[in-house]
Design a protein that fits this description.
Strand order of the largest sheet: 3-4-5-6
Radius of gyration: 23 Å
Number of strands: 6
Order of helices and strands: HHEEHHHHHHHEHEEHE
Largest sheet: 4 strands, mixed
Helix content: 55-70%
Length: 284
């Protein structure tokens, strides 16, 4: 309310209202997609520089569901951009306000397609990459892209200030938003993978009692944390533990990985998978 009051005092009340309407429409598209996928929405936060729909179940959803929910927001904004363009061309709307609303929706649609977390494009990229490299590693890729985007925005704002004397507070605000959001996402993948490993029974039941198998090879002295990040959703993993000379020391499965993680922690070495108590199977 304070922001609206300040904007109204500066003669920009209508613009801020249109910005909030565009943000609300963007988040409403996410909510509609999440509801259609059977997910519950906890709440929606709207700020002048961005919005976020809190969907607790999305963190454990299949990649296809995450991709669908992520794409709904940018698609909704771009559809509103097209509808506003049509209405403006037919003289149904005030040209100034329509032009502003067009620009806001176009910016929301295009900017959110950038493949960097915490943007929608980052979630889409993670969903597409998770099946090939694992959810944790895919998250690291798009988190690093988020850090890069934050640095680029901050540098652009600083450059405008240094070269032209123009202060662009939006660039700095978005930079902070991108950095904090990426940092928060950085710690979620390991928790999700734990849930995936613990919920294999439910995944098997949901897929008719069968899951595709994905082989993984890991050095015996590598930490289990790195292996945890290579776990892909919707797959069952068979793990080959290799010695320094590349020879196979033994074979383990997800039950062995889960037991080793619970017993020794994520920083233990992969050779712990072959301990008898972990359920791993030694081999030649």
């Amino acid at each position: 309310m304070a922001i609206l009051a300040l904007a109204a005092a500066g003669g920009l009340g209508r613009e801020v209202i249109l910005l909030l309407v565009a943000l609300a429409a963007h988040e409403a598209a996410h909510i509609a997609a999440a509801t259609a996928c059977g997910l519950e929405v906890e709440r929606v936060d709207l700020l002048p520089f961005g919005g976020m729909a809190r969907i607790p179940g999305l963190a454990a959803a299949e990649p296809g569901v995450e991709a669908t929910v992520a794409m709904a927001g940018p698609l909704g904004s771009l559809l509103l951009y097209g509808a506003t363009t049509w209405a403006k061309d037919n003289a149904w709307l005030d040209p100034h306000l329509a032009g502003y609303y067009q620009a806001v929706n176009l910016a929301l649609g295009v900017a959110n397609l950038v493949p960097a977390l915490p943007l929608d494009g980052g979630r889409l990229a993670r969903a597409l990459l998770a099946g090939r490299m694992g959810y944790g590693r895919a998250t690291l890729v798009v988190v690093r892209a988020g850090y890069a985007a934050a640095v680029a925005l901050g540098a652009a704002g600083a450059g405008l200030w240094a070269l032209r004397g123009t202060i662009a507070p939006g660039a700095f605000v978005f930079a902070v938003f991108a950095w904090v959001g990426a940092r928060r996402e950085r710690w979620l993948p390991d928790l999700r993978t734990w849930r995936d490993l613990l919920g294999r029974g439910a995944a098997l039941a949901a897929r008719g009692g069968a899951l595709p198998v994905r082989p993984l090879a890991v050095s015996a002295d590598a930490p289990l944390q790195g292996l945890l990040r290579a776990i892909a959703p919707g797959r069952y993993h068979v793990i080959w533990v290799l010695g320094a000379d590349g020879r196979v020391l033994g074979q383990a499965d997800e039950a062995a990985l889960l037991a080793a993680l619970q017993r020794d922690g994520p920083l233990a070495q992969a050779r712990q998978l072959l301990e008898p108590a972990s359920g791993g199977r030694g081999g030649g």
